[in-house]
Amino acid sequence: MRTRVVGIIIKEGQILLMHRVKNGEEYYVLPGGGIEENENTEDALKREIKEELSLDISKHELAFEIDNKGSREIYYLITNFNGTPKLGGPEKEKMNEQNQYYPEWFNLVKASELKNLLPREAVDKIRRLLATHPSPEYRKAIPRKRMASGVLLFNKEEKLLIVKPSYKDYWSMPGGIIDANESPRQTALREVTEEIGIQPEQCQFLCLDYISAEKERDEMLEFTFYGGKLDQKQIENIKIDEDEISDYKFVDTDEAMDLFGGKGSKLGKKLPKYLEALKQETVIYLENGEE
Fold first, then answer.
1. Residue 221 main-chain phi, psi, to 5 deg
2. How far apart are CA 194 and CA 120, in angstroms?
């Protein structure tokens, strides 16, 4: 099996990607290349990054491995290096109108959302880096006080719609991080549309939860909205974004709490409070999931 080494180069919350234009197709990859005869993986990594980007690696660690179309790819997290990215090596020599290479920095969060970042097998693992390989370099990609929005959606039988993010080990509600210059409600509607392909007819504010840095990596504000009950036509139009969501289903609230991670999990603890607020036709404020 052919083996390649790949560099995940991070600085100030940004990741270095190679912007490719090949035979009219435009996409992004991470820098790297094949291992030469009698060369170990770390030496190959240093050589490839030096040749391709004119950078000298001073600190790296193994991040993960994948099988990409029969090729073994070994990914290394690189957070310390010397030099300024500049195209070189075989990539520079092969540059022509039909085959182009451009090193570009991207915000790490935004990069993981690129639909044309390849290979897709690696993207889910890159999304998990914050949890699997904590580093102050790429935590800078996330605002100090994060904000997120989630949406409660039901069917006519009062069952809750839950989704399975492809990059998490548990189920959740539709939702995600609030972008710059975006309101919590706009995020709620956008995330539902992106994740399951429909837009709720309503988006009613339900809950604000302040989560302290002691409970999460950073302070966080979580907004929860009630998106109403979906009719059969809306349910038939559900189409999941398979890059981010691997599955969805409607379940009763007890099963939802189990799939969220149990009654003691973050969502499992808050779901009964959401339901009670809906019943009372009120809104609630929480701190770390508690009133």
1. -115, 125
2. 18
Q: Domains for the chain: give ranges and CATH numbers.
A: 3-139 (3.90.79.10), 146-287 (3.90.79.10)
Asked if 208 contacts 287 with a C-beta cutoff of 8 angstroms, the reply is no
Residue type, 4: R
In a 3-state reduction of DSSP, which class is residue 83? coil
Query: What letters, b where the CB count within 10 A reaches 16 and e where it falls short, cover 235-244?
Result: eeeeebbebb
**Residue 288 in contact with residue 215, Cβ under 8 Å?**
yes
Q: What is the pLDDT along the chain (291 residues), one digit of tens a residue?
A: 789 999 999 998 899 999 999 999 999 999 999 999 889 999 999 999 999 999 999 999 999 999 998 889 999 999 899 999 999 999 999 999 999 999 999 988 888 889 999 999 999 898 888 778 777 776 676 666 789 999 999 999 999 999 999 888 899 999 999 988 899 999 999 999 999 999 998 999 999 999 987 765 678 999 999 999 999 999 999 999 888 899 999 999 999 999 999 988 999 999 999 999 999 999 999 999 998
- In whole angstroms, give the CA distance from residue 129 to residue 132: 5
Say how far apart CA 106 and CA 93 lie, in whole Å: 25
Residue 87 falls in which region: left (phi positive, over 0), alpha (psi -120 to 50) or beta = beta
Select from 127, 130, 158 the least CA-distant residue to 226: 158
| Rounded Cα gap, residues 6 and 53, in angstroms | 12
The whole-angstrom separation of Cα 148 and Cα 2 is 42
Q: What residue type is 94 in one-letter code?
A: K
- pTM here is 0.65
Quote the tokens at residue 161: 């719609």
